[in-house]
Amino acid sequence: MDEELKQKLIEILKDKRMLEILKHLKKANVDYGKSIMLNTKIPIQEVVDLLDKLEKIGLIERVHGATLKNTEAKFKLSKEVHKHHTYYRLTREGDHLLRQLDENTLIEGYIELVKNDQFALDILRIADEVNADHALTYAKLLHKTLEEVTPKLEELEMTGLIEEKNAKIIKFIDRRSKPKKETRTHHKYYGLSRIGELVVRELKRKGILPK
């Protein structure tokens, strides 16, 4: 992946939903906001905003013309439809990015995103150590205020490196910071996602995070 495309990958990794939309457009070929909303479960106003960002980055483009054939818009059932909506498709560059995006490239993109952000690195390190815990625990372990830590956790959740752990009971094996065998989740619990675990493993291998 060339440097320009790599920078665009880093930009879209700041919000994992942009990658979801790109992958959907790869399948759909051509699609519009409401249909993208139904297929990705992203609220419509957020879809509109994300489409605008992706268009500005140059990874998608608007489709011109009055009608679309269903061979172009694969999620349309009728053979030909009048365009009542603004339709989008991947640009050549957007398609090129997805073709090159394997797991290793994705991990390297995330590393580029966080490697110079010490706050993000500290949170990823703590998430790896505690496995799943609420923001207050992160704040205590990092000697920061809850007001400082919560937005950063949410920012990393937006990237997809951190995710909310939804289990009503988190067992001790999944939560290493407290001695209780199990604990009710009265707060929102954060832990590494699968891709987050892979990124942390590579950060350790590269010496960016301590082993």
Please indicate the percent range of residues in DSSP E strands (runs of 2 or more). Answer: 5-15%
**Helix content, binned percent:** 40-55%
Gyration radius, in Å: 20 Å
Given the helix and strand composition, which structural class is it? alpha+beta
SSE pattern, N- to C-terminal: HHEHHEEEEHHHEHHEEEEH
- The tally of strands reads 10
- Indicate the overall shape: globular
> Terminal Cα separation, in Å?
29 Å
Mean pLDDT: 86
Give the low-pLDDT segments. Answer: 77-82
Count of alpha and pi helical runs? 10
- Lateral strand order in the biggest sheet: 1-5-2
State the major sheet.
Answer: 3 strands, antiparallel
Description:
The chain has about 210 residues and is an alpha+beta fold. Helix content is about 55%, strand content about 15%. The protein has 10 helices and 10 strands. The chain has helices at about 5-10, 15-30, 35-40, 45-55, 90-100, 105-115, 120-130, 135-140, 145-160, 195-205; strands spanning about 30, 60, 65-70, 80, 85-90, 135, 160-165, 170, 180-185, 190. Helix 8 (about 135-140) crosses helix 9.
Question: How would you describe this structure in keywords?
Answer:
three-stranded antiparallel β-sheet; 54% helix; alpha+beta; single chain; 211 residues; 10 strands; globular
